[in-house]
Prior knowledge:
The structure is a homodimer.
Chain A (H helix, E strand, L loop, with lengths): L1 H25 L15 H4 L8 H14 L10 E2 L14 H11 L11 H12 L18 H14 L10 E4 L1 H13 L8 E7 L4 H9 L2 E6 L10 H11 L4 E8 L11 H14 L2 E5 L16 H7 L2 H4 L4 E6 L13 E6 L3 H13 L5 H11 L9 H6 L16 H5 L5 H6 L16 H7 L3 H13 L1 E2 L17
Parallel strand pairs in A: 1-9, 3-4, 3-5, 5-6, 6-7
Antiparallel strand pairs in A: 2-8, 7-8
Helix pairs in contact in A: 3-19, 4-5, 4-14, 6-14, 7-8
Amino acid sequence: GRRNIAVCNCKGLAKLSTADAVEVKENGRSRHKILTLKTMNPQVKAVEYAVRGPIVIKAGEIEKELQQGIKKPFSEVIKANIGDAHAMGQQPITFLRQVVALCTYPELLDSPSFPEDAKRRAERILQSCGGHSLDTGAYSASQGLDCIREDVAMYMKKRDGGVPVDPNNIYLTTGASDGIANILKLLVSGEGNSRTGVMIPIPQYPLYSAAISELGAVQINYYLDEENCWALDVNELRRAVNQAKEYCDPKVVCLINPGNPTGRISTCSQREISVHFSTQCFFFFFLNKVYQDNVYAEGCQFHSFKKVLYEMGPEYFSSVELASFHSTSKGYMGECGYRGGYMEVIHLDPEVKAQLVKLLSVRLCPPVPGQAAMDVVVNPPQPGEESYEQFIKNGGIEIGNTGEKTFVTLSLFNMGRQLRINWAKAKCQSDFPNPVNTRFPNDLLKAHGMPPDMFYCMRLLEQTGICVVPGSGFGQKEGTYHFR
Amino acid sequence: GRRNIAVCNCKGLAKLSTADAVEVKENGRSRHKILTLKTMNPQVKAVEYAVRGPIVIKAGEIEKELQQGIKKPFSEVIKANIGDAHAMGQQPITFLRQVVALCTYPELLDSPSFPEDAKRRAERILQSCGGHSLDTGAYSASQGLDCIREDVAMYMKKRDGGVPVDPNNIYLTTGASDGIANILKLLVSGEGNSRTGVMIPIPQYPLYSAAISELGAVQINYYLDEENCWALDVNELRRAVNQAKEYCDPKVVCLINPGNPTGRISTCSQREISVHFSTQCFFFFFLNKVYQDNVYAEGCQFHSFKKVLYEMGPEYFSSVELASFHSTSKGYMGECGYRGGYMEVIHLDPEVKAQLVKLLSVRLCPPVPGQAAMDVVVNPPQPGEESYEQFIKNGGIEIGNTGEKTFVTLSLFNMGRQLRINWAKAKCQSDFPNPVNTRFPNDLLKAHGMPPDMFYCMRLLEQTGICVVPGSGFGQKEGTYHFR
């Protein structure tokens, strides 16, 4: 019977264990811990992520002290370390929340207190939900709900003035970072000199460097031109790729447009250069455009890289593999908590596409409420619809008018609300200033054992309650110091 | 000015590009594709995930045919390939949806049509949300909202009869698979013979083998004893680990209890054996208990591995590193679409814990609606509360009564609803039957070019509309054939 088996197994095991205990010691593994800094995955250890680093931990401590009534020269901490509009007090878009609430609790479809257009959106999404459910409680297809991918395709087509979009190339994701990590995962291969190299701008948003470290790819820095409003300089791209070829296989170029943390909007001329660079040097392009709806300065407008490619003709467009990423977390809606997002991946080898779908299916599906939120972002109330006025009052914007001013921008919040006025005035000003180059005498810094940017950010936090992140977290030329 | 820079950069690039084009050809990389099956990440290529594999694709095709009015011997496809209770027609728990809807659209807190206890839960969650928001639209802490982690700790403590739980060891996740992947990520290291080995039961739920492939760890199979109701046999564990030491460093043991796909509930004696195995051989334990609320057979009850360890005394308990995983997707609530989950990680080296928090912070936070859903799962309506009756009517269960029958179980749905009666009668019956060992003459199988289990599942699908998955997707002894 089972009992006997248990007993004899126990005896059997006792012998085994002693033997193992010795072996284990010989391997020099700690008797008490399997998992230590020494034994853990070195690629994970190498990951850095400043936007939630030491400054942010300090900010949390100060917030707790304020709650405990400890007096400070300020009454609240302004967490400008990360683009989190709602945490900064932005009110949500009513229509978006109505649609997601209706999808969550469909009994509300009978409630007179919800507008008809919100109900129509919700009913359409529920119809698209899995199996018998007509309900957000079931897994969706791993690629995301069909009707939402169709809405995303329509949104992109409108944004790009008619450039075709195939819904089968749209994948809903758990925020943009999830999509970026999965595409990068496909691309990482090779050992030593043939290991996949990934070119990222410096300064960059650190999820790129983090994903590169985690996957053991090779990070290739190309430096943006601070003297020229953080412009992309192709000579620098050229230097970076040629140097990198000595120690890796450069395969991927990441473009962050609008720039994060720089706030730079690429001009057409610069993107044409990138196009040459891609079509003649064969790079897989990562296009981060999560701030495409945050273009606010007069005269600046977002032009998608894909659109420029397309307009340059098939000899450029047809051969370029590219993945572009968007998110519900930024833009006018700033819905960070829902972890919604999408990516478009074009000209992907069909066999690789099957591999991508398989990879996504292991995580089953993106959160369905986040998918619903994404749908409202790309399919907001239209003029003439019941909720349109309310939507515009909430700070929503019309699709196609992404060039118009909106004050819900990462830069504004990241600079702290009191700087808003300057920013609204600013045109091509940097979102990544360097006020700390000459502010502190070196001996004072040495005394605190911190680099100038970290010291500046710590002091700013302690004295004003404004939490910004040192430039070191985003990358900066040696000897220069910034904050975001 | 910028225009001039653009021009000169363009010229500069032209030279570069030609040179590159040649180099690229020399590297033998396809002129048209950077990313191909040949160049892609081989670890991703190695991933297998049957529960969304060819059978499921076929099921989707048949569903479309039914929609088009094509006649079949059945009127609907029963997707029994994956535990998705809502897709199988289960109604959601009203209380859970009310709380999540209230968190999504707090204006509803003023609505008389929502019960007070649901409003109290929602207000508490909103209070715990980030920054100024009191709103699910802001990122939460990467580890999850404090108040929900506290509720999880109370739930686990109650389930384990008072075994202490520290909320700081609780991490909210994007479903269980996200937690499993992240902890495994920490553990993978070493090259060749010292590469991390992970012991998994065969049959297993394929997210384990998928995560192992993706991370390039070494999969070590230990076979469950089919003749003994898929019991865990320590002699088999012993064989597996000793054999594995020749080609890797076995560091991790995964226990799936209740078993998936076997439906087996471990008995105490078996878990004591596992305890010896852990404390004397130093393994990091992965405990998958997502079906802990699905124990329905008379006389069977779920006992947590941690509780058994604890009761055996500090010499066992204090040294064992273990991570246990739970999810909103299974259990009586079956909320798959919200991607909610949590893990408890105990006795983790403090330095490694900091690394884990950093790793989680790169993905920012789990979806907040899923966190709210998780809160209701661990903190459901209590006797005397307004929503309690409705909750029980919905099929909810009282915490602590996890031994009582509930018919919302993976096994029932995975076997197709018409088999429910047999299953409810069944006591220690397997959830992973092998009816196909001798059913088909070999020549017939050869004619179809499929292994017997795949052939059986395809035929079952085409003739009855029931979609089950071949045993090969979960692992099975050579020459045996099963389905789930």
